[in-house]
Amino acid sequence: MSFTLLINIKKLLQVRESNLHYVSGKEMNIIPSINDAYLLLENSLIKDFGEMKDCPKKLEKFKVIDCKEQMVLPSWCDSHSHIVYSGNRSNEFIDRIKGLTYTEIANNGGGILNSVEILRNTSKEDLLKQSLERIENVVKQGTGAIEIKSGYGLNIDSEKKMLEVISDIDKSNNIIIKSTFLGAHAFPKEFLQNKDGYVDLVINKMIPEFNDLKLIDYVDVFCEEGYFNLNQAEKIISAAKKIGIQAKIHVNQFNSIGGVKLAVKYNALSVDHLEILNDEDLDVLKNGTTMPVALPTCSFFLGLNYTPGRKIIDSGLPLAIASDFNPGSSPSGNMNFVISTACIKMKLTAEEAINAATINGAYSMGISDKVGSITKGKIANLIITKKIKTINELPYNFGESKISKIILAGNLI
Ligand code: NIG
Ligand code: FE
User: What is the CATH number assigned to the segment(s) 3-75+373-412?
Assistant: First the structure.
């Protein structure tokens, strides 16, 4: 048994009861905290916390970390990433600077299919190595749980390769991983003339096989004009639901084509992107338990509209934010920058952005009973900040790390 005791914490942030799974509307502007606090960890879990006056006295029993003038909060929960990929698309980045749009680049054979070509020609070992480097980087930036999607293989072997790499990352690391099958990310070039044939392959071969191999937690579809239409998306989501796999889907990135309504109908865990969100979509979300997820660094990188996060929260809904880390539309998994961008561009307060990146992010990957808040019994994945006076300094110093130490599963990294 090993005990770690954090003492003299200026502010212990995001202290919650275990029955809370997400926060919505006005409540998002509150981060319950304890000033001048201690936090006791037993092995990988949060054991106890409170004010320093009640701190355990016999310090020699514990590994002690003094957090004077520093704050402590739960690690970031990044509920949407494509962090397993090969190579990069920096050439497309320059094409966009010169004036081409994301859609034009994709229509010219670039985009997702460019990454598919590279990934199919990358060995599993190399893919794992490249991906682990990025994982180590996001861990240093405070991410303690991350959802990872497949979707750059688009055939059985290469999708399986991606999912196995996700599983290997899970086994080799203390970061918490959720795996999402995104076979319906784009139509592979072999099926461009037979799109329904590809949907059949996803439904009849890939989902059952990968489910049997226990490689997938969730299923995703890029529901968008030029990608998977509503009918194709519904077939995939309903096939997954029949075998107990919930959906988390890409919707409303460029057009609102009914993906939100579809997701809520099937009780999807989250709807992600929402750069284009109309009032009907908003009303539909109010009648469900599906979490809206904004990806502000994707908007930043592609120069798209920002998801109307302010409007979503003001209408009483919850909101999560995630990195969307991928080679095409958001080649960064830095959640600190995601939080800054949510504040600067979507007009969230620091409190709202922190809720969106912790407890609501955890909900969006189905793990809010394990992480996302300082709660007895939850996993001790924590950020210890540098010396700061208010939490506003976290988003304010954009692009700069305010993190001094990281704890994952009770261990100092
Ligand atoms: O979430 N929009 C679809 N998928 C990714 C982009 C993937 C890529 O360009 O490689 C996204 O933005
Ligand atoms: Fe994405």
Answer: 2.30.40.10
